[in-house]
Amino acid sequence: MAVVALVATPGRAAEVADVVALVGRGHRVVSWHHHVRPGRGRRPGAVVAADVEALEVLGSSAAEIGVPVVCRVIDQLDETRARSWGVTATFCLVDGPGVPGPTTKDVAAPIRVPRRGVDTRALAVIPLLTRSQLRSAHGLPDPLVLAVDPSASPADRSTGLALASAAVVSEDLVPLALALGTPSVVTPEVADRMGLEDGNQVAVEGLGIDSDRRAARLARDQPAAASMARRARRFAEDHLDLARPVEQLQRALGLIPAPSVIERRLAELSTPPSSRLNRRAAEAMTLFTLEAHT
Amino acid sequence: MTSPEPIHPAIDDDAVARLRQRAGAPSVEVSANESVAGPEPAAGAGSKLRSTARRAAGPVVSRVRSELDRATGGEVAALRAEVAELRAELARLRAEQQAVLAAFREDRR
Amino acid sequence: MDVLVCATQVPFMSGGLELMVENLLGALRGAGHRAEVVALPTAWDRDRLYDAAMAWRMVPLDAELVIPVNFPAYFARHPNKVTWLAHQHRAAYDALGQSWSDFGSDPASLRDHRQLLDWDIRALGEAGRRYTISRVVAERMARWCGLDATPLYQPPPLADALVPRAGGAGDHILCATRLEGNKRPGLFLDGLAAMRRRVPAVLAGRGSLADELAARADRLGLDGRLDLAGFVTDSELVDLFAGATAVVYAPFDEDYGFVTLQAFLAGVPVVTTADAGGVLEWVEHEVTGLVTDGSPEAMGAALDRLVDDPELARRLGRAGRQRVVDLSWEHVVDTLIGSRS
Lengths: 294, 109, 341
Hints:
The complex is a heterotrimer.
Chain A: E1 3-7, H1 17-23, E2 28-31, H2 32-35, E3 46-49, H3 55-58, H4 62-65, E4 69-72, H5 76-85, E5 89-94, E6 111-114, H6 128-137, E7 145-147, H7 154-163, E8 166-168, H8 174-180, E9 184-186, H9 188-194, E10 203-204, H10 209-220, H11 222-240, H12 243-252, H13 261-268, H14 276-284, H15 286-293
Chain B: H1 13-22, H2 46-72, H3 76-108
Chain C: E1 2-9, H1 16-30, E2 34-41, H2 49-58, E3 65-68, E4 82-85, H3 107-125, E5 129-132, H4 135-145, E6 150-151, E7 172-176, H5 185-194, E8 201-204, H6 210-219, E9 226-230, H7 234-242, E10 244-248, H8 258-265, E11 270-273, E12 289-292, H9 296-308, H10 310-324, H11 329-337
Parallel strand pairs in C: 1-2, 1-3, 4-5, 5-6, 7-8, 7-10, 8-9, 10-11, 11-12
Helix pairs in contact in C: 1-11, 5-9, 8-10, 9-10
């Protein structure tokens, strides 16, 4: 278990607390100023800087501190300063797909962490035919069209979205619905804010009976619903995913090893870590793992 | 339908039972403007952090207790996966609590 | 162009897919391309189903184009992947609920089902272009995976040898098929028994239902009128098509069905059922054949109608031939290579 320290200019730390919690899962997360007080002689294993100014607290350059550092940036100037200081990686918090960022291979791009993201690796997509199987196994009607109650318990909301043929979804549940591949009806305002298109990742309709009817129509149109579910999931992975950027940050901080080739292949098919197929692949490679250690 | 390993983390057996009860009934009203997410912890809420963390950990602890009760009924093998899940949940809660505390200390130093 | 056709090898088994791959390979080479088949062994039981899919992700495929033709070959990784899909893993799709599908409603099954569909959608989604052997296969992919595909039809085996007879009416009713449950050869027997006219008939093919069908023919009083021919050579099959008044082909939810196309090339109309799947892409009621509800009475009446009205049979057969006579391997190759889309 490593010690991951958060360092920040006062007033700048709260915004990155969620990211630090994700990056530091399974490790010990501490405040730099609380943990590494002068005279204590304690060094963390990795550092997350909430802003570029905070890097000066650590020293004049990365070489001085001697542990991997990642830094949050908000613009290109930040990015340049952080890179010249010698950070291992930079990250930015993004609101949606419209946020620009350096993408060419020559420019070191910040890792983009969505503010309202979902862990798509933990929340695997549930394809429509599997939903139908699940409904049958659970004695639920097929098709099942829901307007998911935003005031219901988290378990009720996620279960409804996971099993629905189509659903009317309120804004706070949209990331979850997209990740699960639920054919969703959202309002024009929500679609605008999130960069979603009618008939592409979601169906867009005003509130009330129109949205209910649209969801019912969507549930009956299987090819349209399946296509929408596929695009919704893709959108969640491309723009709302927390798992990949967090993994990139963890890797930059040396908290997890680089994945093996077979792990990369399984990951590109979005195989959940808990899948039996990961174990099966690991079993197939056991011989070589043993060889490597003897 | 019970299983030591959940079919999917988004699907909760009790919620399925509730859904079954109301399936077929008219769906509930949607109010898209209504946010159910709890308010972010205020920056000056340091004294409340520990109680928040305790509240968050409460359900986990009660689940552990109920699982232990079940274990006495001879379901030890079936609990392994659930215990692993609970560990992961505790790790998540611990990291969240530590991160909020670290951010608080950095912001208020 | 260097082309690799990616397929599944099920050791000690050979069937329609192997024939399709062989024909595609020949057509690619005939068009001047360097072509090879890459086949990995696959097991169909759920426990080992994913192993070959994982293996495909690791196999180096050094070619300009790869053409996977079935599950799990389409898990092949290649920047220029063009699928020509014969089928996905049907046990997890249209065959759910059938006795031979090992995907049930237990939690382990449901987890595996979710995983398979998710993987399928991603692996098929990687393809730059997607073709299927029929519209039925394309529609399944659209309905369950949300992915578009274009049907790309191939000529059936013996296409060059099958030509309409010179003249006169046919002298028998033919059913040429594997004698397996999904092909429903029993419907043919029931239809024959329900016919008013006592014309001769031939059931050609082998399969696990052979003994059961012989007993059923006996029970139905078809003895002496029905020839249970079993295996027939290619030239015998050509002759059987040429002499037929009508061909009965009534499988359940067929993917493609070469028999329909062979009958049409021979200028013979096809009698089928409304649930025959890909067969209905070719058999249009009272245009190229007759579509029935599958009941013995309806099958018998349809066959009587063609026997009673040789001109109708000829007209439907001619229209059928018009629909398939232009199918060619050259078109298949040009489309897959990308010189025609």
